[in-house]
Amino acid sequence: MPDRPRQGARAGFSGWRARRPFWGGLLLALGGGEILLTEKASLKVVMHIGMQGLAGYLLPTVMVILGLLILFNPSQRLFYSVIGVLLSLGTWLTSNLGGFFVGLLLGATGSCLTFGWLPEQEPRVGRRKRRKLARAAATGATASTGAMTEGAEGAA
């Protein structure tokens, strides 16, 4: 009985996630968060904060905000993704080489995924489901062919 509400919540989340560029927004927000965390590293690890320190904190903060906006307002995803990729590339100069490349790559990848997301596109069918459908179609075709030959033999 406890599995029933969980399935409903899981299905609800999957439906919500399917209507927006979920992975793109998540990666952009994680990239900004990672860059912010590298800003707080010890001085031996920090290479440079750059531009009086303000841009080093401002760019990743805006990246996190853009990632959340992509998740909760996907209608403006193209604008958010273009700004997100520019900010991700800007962290190369302002924030420890873009959070030691990790945050920069997460942000750029998330922005590109968001830019390429199409809301009208049908969800992809998984490999297992395609195989299952192909098997069902093959057995259905074989069964109908067998029924046709039996009917032809009975008529003769």
Give structural attributes.
77% helix; mainly alpha; 156 residues; elongated; 7 helices
Q: Concise description?
A:
By secondary structure, the protein is an all-alpha fold. It has helices at residues 3-18, 22-39, 54-72, 77-94, 96-100, 102-116, 127-155.
Overview of this structure, please?
The protein has 156 residues and is mostly helical. Helices cover 77% and strands 0% of the residues. It has helices at residues 3-18, 22-39, 54-72, 77-94, 96-100, 102-116, 127-155. Helix 2 packs antiparallel against helix 6 (102-116) and helix 3 runs antiparallel to helix 4. The model has no long low-confidence stretch (mean pLDDT 82).
What is the residue-mean pLDDT, rounded to a whole number? 82
What coarse outline follows from CA principal-axis ratios? elongated
N/C terminus separation: 56 Å
Number of helices: 7
Largest β-sheet summary: none
Radius of gyration: 25 Å
Low-confidence stretches: none
What fraction, in percent, of the residue positions are helical? over 70%
Share of β-strand residues: under 5%
> How many β-strand stretches?
0
Q: Tell me the structural class.
A: mainly alpha
Query: SSE order in H/E notation?
Result: HHHHHHH
